[in-house]
Specification:
Elements lengths: L1 H17 L3 E6 L7 E3 L2 E3 L1 H13 L2 E6 L3 H9 L5 E2 L7 H6 L1 E2 L4 E10 L7 H10 L1 H25 L12 H17 L9 H33 L15 E4 L3 H8 L4 E4 L2 H9 L5 E5 H9 L6 E13 L2 E2 L6 H13 L2 H10 L5
Parallel strand pairs: 1-4, 1-5, 8-9, 8-10
Antiparallel strand pairs: 2-3, 6-12, 7-10, 7-11
The structure holds glutamic acid.
Amino acid sequence: MRYLFLIFALCLSFAPVFAAPELRVATREIAPFVVPQGSQLSGFSIDLWNAIAAELKVQTRFSIKKNVGELLAAVKNGQADASVAAISVTAKRAREVDFSQPIYDSGLQILVRGKASTPSLWDGLMQLLRSPIMVQFVIAVALLILIPAHLLWFIERHSNDGIIRHDTYFPGIFEAVWWTVSCLATQAEEMPKTVWARILAVIWMFFAVIFIAYVTAALTANLTMQSLRGDIHGPDDLPGKNVATVAGSTSAEYLGERKIRAQSFASADEAIGALEKGEVAAVVYDSPILLYYAANKGQGNVAVVGAVFRRESYAIAFPNGSRWRKSVNFALLSLRENGVYDQIREKWFGSEGD
Ligand code: GLU
């Protein structure tokens, strides 16, 4: 009986050794890879990790980080045993941390506002009325009408049967203004009588043609510019545009390398928020994340344009020399072979794709 007790006590003291080990896994919210669901986490990367953990018979304790930099730092400084989210493998990162086999093929793409790139007639007119060029146009027209009208009135006011029939300022000036306006808009029917007024009229009519041509061109360009807000089709259209991206991401690095002016936000949601508010012309970020947003929350407001222009793979990051990497890779391979990987992929991305 005493021995039985001893064996029981021994078993109890070894219990923690036999319990499933717990891995500290750093992650960050990034739909559809990591999606908070109540107090739990879900998403493609989380479901995949949970399947790996089940294969390895380990427990997981997740910790939430703010950006990809923190995820990499967590494994680098030993704070976490692994980082799982939408972490792209790059040569620079691979020098500092270890990576698993790829878990998802990704790349960079561009998100822009709206689908409709041609505004309706009414929207176009409204945009035009509110545009700064309209104010300049009104001032220019006022000056261009009033100055020649006064000159004409002054020269022509005493001529008999000229176009100014009254030699007093009022209503004589109205007749002069009528003439300059009709000259500007179409062609005046009458010609002034005095030589100087005729010279003025010829110069003015010539000038009016150029002015109308210039205004038409400026307004057309302005309207076209407004309707081509979505005129970004690929990375070549990005220089000179206001672009948003996510801090610390491979996209931020890509834009920096190409000297494309970009604002960095803490999350994809914030960067896309800036796009929806019209603060930026495009968001450059991970293709699957942009596509997911455009198909869900952003439906009808935003659209992904152009092809994927920098291919990347997502993987799980480990501290250098981690003893877990090899077994995680084995688990990943068997999940691909037994169809679990495809099930998880289909759950989050549907059946399209490879
Ligand atoms: N996949 C990108 C990267 O690894 C973005 C990740 C993120 O913002 O969490 O840089």
